[in-house]
Batch of 3 targets.
Target 1
Amino acid sequence: MPVAAIQDLSVKENVLARVEAIEPAPDGHRVTLALAASTTGPEPSQLANMLFGNCSLQPDVTLEAVAFPEGYANAFAKPAFGIEGLRATVGARGRALTCTALKPQGSAIDRLARLAGDFARAGIDVIKDDHGLANQAFSPFETRVPQIQAAIEAANRETGGRTVYAPTFSGGWRALEHQIQVARDCGVGAALVAPMLVGLPALQELRQALRVPILAHPALGGASRIAPAVLFGQLFRLCGADAIIFPNHGGRFSYSRETCLAIAATARGPWPGVAPAMPVPAGGMSVERVPEMLNDFGNDVMLLIGGNLLAAGADLPARAREFVAAVHGGGRP
């Protein structure tokens, strides 16, 4: 909108964005814009639109940082559990949490259920669906989720553990409503949501409807022109993620150590009225890297190792116990 075409003085004074600074940067210029908070609604899709809507269509523009005004987050879902709530859910105090994934796609449901039982008996805190497990014909949500939940509950009864299951929630709102009901009926203790697949507003609605901890998955979050710390650490957290999965450096993805530390710092950082979210470094991690990851991220972290455990084959239960022991021991075997 050309400024000269705005006739309403109140729009000019109270709505029009301002350019607050333009500074030289190594690859162009760093521009600081001030937006009127009233223009975002506030609701997640309009917030994203104001922050990086049309600008995302300009290939030379990136979104590097966002500062929210005091009290802004109060209109959003925010984490319902956060780090302390996650710890209470699985009964983990004073240590990092453990997490693994059920995979691959195409596996029989009874195999996935047996796998989940093995992981739970090994003492892993959170067992999530691989994000590729959704509602396919070979593994429908309403069949898969109750069977896996029952297997984990049986293992918890054997061991006295408190392992929780986080199935993938996906699809449109009608599908999500059905999945919410299935999850409630069988007592699912957590949820896996990919906010960039179902949408930030759906993440917020799921947070309000499910009443269990939500792990946010980064699928489709690789828009390299939004800083990962902003997208994962701020926007996912603002809309209700209790734990935030991201690709750790040195694995299958190309994030640097500095980027990963920035994501973790933003997810856990001070934000008045917003609980800190648990960072979950993942993506090709191994048991051997547990000491390094604990050194990088400290105890307020959930370590996610999937394929490295599954690759153990018949020795998977022992490998899973090795993972748990390494984390419980602070990185020592």
Target 2
Amino acid sequence: MHTTQLLRSALIFTRDGLNRLIADIKGPQAAMTRPAPGSGNHPTWVMGHLCAVESAIQASIAGEPNRHEHLWKLFAPGTQPSSDASAYPPFDDLIRTFNTIREDTLKLLDKVGDAGLDKPPSFIPPGFEDAMSSTGKTFMLIPLHQMVHYGQITDCRRAAGLKPLL
């Protein structure tokens, strides 16, 4: 098996799992449910954050401008989730954006191919020199990062009274 096949499998597995996890989060109230009263990341912030980070990683790999830079001010690492739903794009828009970004990531993976995975990405943000020392490791950050936040959405589901998936 080629490394790109493993990366593709991880990217598809996490995309599909996240889509199942958020499928029944309907309406602004559920999308803004925090895992604990007044604290934690709600699903709207998590989805926007996943979009912002994955888009930035694509830009780092490809050496192109971040097409979703506008999401960075609301969803960058270190931003604090607001309880004001009007401060954010609609949850359904974030879901569509996430799926579009993931398709673009899969296309970029195909373009890079196995031969390009050992090369460094075009841009490495300060503090990520080890985690992004190769394009392959940089691609792997996407599903690993998503799995961290997958757990946060699971906690929000429980707080919202939704059934667990498993």
Target 3
Amino acid sequence: MALELTGRPHVREALLWRPVEGRPGFVECFLCARRCIIAPGRYGACGVRKNIGGRLYTLVYGLLTAMNIDPIEKKPMYHFEPGSSVFSISTVGCNFYCRFCLNWEISQSRLERGLYGRFVPPERCVETAVEYAADGIAYTYNEPTVFFEYMLDVARLARGRGLYNVMVTNGYMTPEAIELLAPYIDGATVDFKGCGNPEFYRRFMGVPDPSPIFTALLAMKKAGWWIEVTNLVVPKYGDREEDLRRLARWIVENLGEETPFHLLRFHPDYRLLDLPPTPVETLERLAKAAMDEGLKYVYLGNVWGHPLENTHCPRCGYTVIERRGFYITAWRLTKDNRCPKCGYRINIRGRFHGGTASILPVVM
């Protein structure tokens, strides 16, 4: 064991694991909802947590594959600190096996090319974010749950420097993980695929049951995190309106009707290249269904220039925020985020930063 760990700063003992009673050398990881039982010398389903000598280690602590400045709208988060800049980081690995993954080079590296990246200590990560005048840090691109220990350390330091912390996640984490993260994470975009259909998750994502995602969402809400929900609409296999309505109803009943909801257009990638991009008409039909179920803020993603990139006042219909892709092009809210026409308060966390505006904001 000593030889395997010597001189490798990205290998650290993991959190959230325990020995398996009656099975010497085996460990149970309870970081994500898979709760893997891992034999000595073997990996968890994520491919980045390994049982070494009867103890569980993360192999990607600070082993970064990306460090980018993004608009927060790219996550997508439309109602959280709008117009702000976020320092986005990732490692490799994922606890899902999505056949259509856009970032498969890093998320599925355990299958395609092994572990790689550049070690960046948490302190240096936060300093870089500050140097580039970021407003916060996003744990994104691959599933941030799999680099949990590093995320936790960075988030603590970032909070101390006045930066916000947000996750872009598939939501397949345990309540125990959310409890540890709760004091440091400000918001999360939780990504559904295929309208949350269980058979879709099994067939195209290698996930036995999506129900733990709903449990995690409730834990995030209890912790006070800002939540936006996305759903990737995969044509033919993951675009059933009844599934979409079921998901939208759950959000309304459990997270609230003002939860921002993003329907994302699928593009063929990785191992699902035989399907066309999602027809815009399908996205529009599902958006209407989500609104019919009571959601007040429904958006289309990956359809630049579509009217449903914009925010409309739920009371009077006035366009209060215009966007094009990841960029705010017009801001028409009052200083306290109200519609200037009817006074309805738009559900926004934080303030308009103006960083991604391509024209001057209209400040009422």
